[in-house]
Design brief:
Elements lengths: L21 H14 L7 E5 L14 E4 L5 H11 L4 E7 H5 L3 H10 L4 E6 L34 H6 L5 E6 L3 H13 L4 E6 L11 H7 E3 L6 H9 L4 E8 L30 H7 L1
Parallel strand pairs: 1-2, 1-3, 3-4, 4-6, 5-6, 7-8
Antiparallel strand pairs: 5-8
Helix pairs in contact: 1-6
Length: about 280
């Protein structure tokens, strides 16, 4: 059955600031799912708390908004339970790199077959612009007039240091390219991490559409991790596209010996058990 992009629309009104990158990110995600022929009933979308999470009611599909920084473990559970579903974890740079960083690290290490979208707007936008691990050094933010006092985290460097199977970077100012990147991430069999350089006109106006466009340089995918690292460390350009892939790494489920001869999904194997005898013993 053909999929129409309006099938992913909801009646909820967007509450993002005018010019927010989330509008284009949502558009790119919907476009990617439609072009892959995915029905909303075939998609699981796991959101955390933040400006990105405010999109959870603005796209159709099986959606959940969990705790701050925790969208990845829910997505992992959904995937392992039913691999027929297309599973996407949607998370901000704040939640992902602060209390959620362990989930990102172990997700890469385990190579679960899900796609992770990291909205990187370099601040905690929902709570009026506090610093995150990606906020530029010296930038005054709410509650931190002298800028961040801690070190920074480069998302690409962190991901590539963990021997990933897929890392890409998109730009909210280019929804066409971003949509193609998301499609590549979904089609990749493994843990696909996509950093999205996101415009935040309210709390990060210094990184405007015009300034970022002047730094963006589209690139082709490579399986040479050293070359990928050079692109990520470049301070003059922001390389976008599929930065690195390693198709030799098996995904997590494929490494489970006890599931290799199983045709069913775990969700199909769930049964009802009568526990009345246990409860009666407790009375």
């Amino acid at each position: 059955m053909k999929v129409d992009i309006t099938q992913y629309d909801t009646n909820e009104k967007s509450t993002w600031c005018p010019g927010c990158g989330n509008f284009n990110i949502h558009l790119a995600l919907k476009k990617a799912l439609v072009e892959l022929g995915k029905q909303p009933s075939e998609v699981v979308l796991s959101f955390d708390i933040g400006c990105n999470g405010n999109g959870g009611d603005k796209i159709e599909g099986f959606r959940v908004k969990g705790l701050h920084g925790r969208s990845i473990p829910f997505a992992v559970g959904a995937h392992i339970a039913n691999r027929k579903m297309t599973v996407i974890a949607d998370i901000g740079d704040g939640g992902c790199l602060h209390e959620g960083v362990d989930h990102l690290i172990h997700g890469i290490r385990s190579n679960y077959d899900i796609t992770v979208l990291i909205h990187n707007n370099e601040n905690f936008g929902l709570t009026t612009g506090q610093i995150t691990s990606t906020t530029k050094e010296g930038k005054a933010m709410y509650g931190f007039p002298n800028g961040r006092t801690e070190g920074a985290i480069n998302i690409g460097e962190l991901v590539l240091s963990l021997n990933p199977s897929f890392f890409a970077r998109g730009f909210s100012g280019d929804p066409e390219q971003l949509s193609n990147i998301i499609k590549s991430g979904i089609k990749h069999k493994g843990f696909s991490v996509i950093e999205i350089v996101q415009i935040c006109p309210t709390y990060n106006p210094e990184s405007s559409l015009e300034i970022l466009k002047g730094k963006i340089s589209q690139t082709e995918s490579t399986n040479d991790i050293d070359l990928a690292r050079k692109k990520i460390k470049d301070t003059e350009k922001i390389y976008t596209g599929v930065i690195y892939t390693n198709s030799k790494l098996k995904d997590y489920y494929s490494n489970l010996e006890n599931r290799k001869n199983r045709k069913s999904e775990l969700v199909d194997e769930v049964k009802n058990y009568d526990i009345m005898n246990i409860l009666s013993d407790l009375q």
